[in-house]
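Hey team,

Filing this mostly as a record. A colleague (T.K.) asked me to run one chain through the structure pipeline before their review meeting, and I want the input and output archived in the tracker in case anyone asks later how it was produced. No errors, nothing strange. Just documentation.

Input sequence:
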Amino acid sequence: MTALGVVFLLGALACLAFRRDAFVVVVAASAGVPASAAITVGSISISPFQMLGVICAIALLFTARRVSGGAGHVPMVMFTAWCVLITAAGPLIFAGLDVLPARKGVDIAVRSPEALTYTVSTIAQTVYLLIGFAVIVYFVVTKRSPLLAAIPLAVGTVLSSLRIVSGLVGVRWPAWIFDNATNVIYADETSRARGVLAEPSELAGFSLAALAFGVACCVSSRVSVRLLGAGLSLLALMNLLLSGSGTAVVAGAVLAAIAGVVSILRAVREDSPRVIWLSLVALALILGAVLAGNRLASWATDIVTRKVGSASMGFRSSADSFSLEIVRQTFGLGVGLGGNRPSSFALMLLSNVGVVGFVLLAVAIAALVRHAYKARSAVPACWSLVGLLIAKIIGLPDLSTPILWVLLAACAAAVWTTQDRQPLTRRTLPSVPSTIPSRKRIPCTSRTI
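Output structure:
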């Protein structure tokens, strides 16, 4: 067990022993260091989130409550069941099919595809899926606030900012604590920042989710939440810019466009004073774009142009095209989790769990976001989830991303309902009537002769 694993395990055990309701806070915080290992055995590394997720799954066996329903609950359960089924059957049905191995980089995998078979990734990705689903259920049955998603976003953002600043001022960062997973390929930080994540694009996706969460918190009626949102937004924006990722540019532009359209439509529909404020914000953004338009455009163009013309972009495009062919060859069923790893999250779903899995997850997330957005406390988590999904569709394929499951849990906590489990009691056996007729007692009477 690593030093980071000891810290999280001791924190979890202390909470379970003295303050059980704080255990979920430790679980949420563990999602802020997704590229670090808590337990390492040879080439297998288990992150703190996965380690504590197992404890969540065990705790559910002794919890007096269970999920009874809610928007997106049935599709999410069906998605989990379908993933387990196709992962068990896919490598057997389509054995020998060329796939991109999950444990190799995209560039190496594109050059040398491997034949589909059962691997360690097959088992690992299935376990990660079940752990993620267990965390969602645990968040719901313990009735946690959706604002709890701020904890992992703050942990990952602050640690990444500290690493970036330490590099700028020449202070040595304790990389041995965070860069300790044997199954993770850590990118070099010579020109682009990656924080405590594995590569700059992952930092960009994480930072975009944190930025969306922080900006959504800035419109809260509580001063403490607004201050948290402002601080988180500033740090996340700094990390986003220093990551130098094309994912950040494209995903940020898409998210900003969606947010603008949704905000204007909602303000107009409600006929609220926010229309005036939105107009002022829009004018301020236009003025800022005019004043800094050349610098902003050159920065974004430089990043996108450099990315499009790079070898990395060529390998990613080839991996996505290769995965589309797998979807066709498997008749839309997929090869199972851990079987193929492209560049896009959407193509990962289509090539691994097929059209059925893709549609089920899309329906579950759409239902969660649509209904959770009606709860004021869940609005930041909804925007954060949308931002993360945009970044993942562009260039982050992993389903096991811890912050994804925490954001799903935050939305589900505002939507899903629970009820107490029915206690097991001894059933009372009904009385069985006797088949032998009872003998009537005839009174003795005197007879006159």
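Quick notes for T.K.: The chain has 17 helices and six strands. The radius of gyration is 27 Å.
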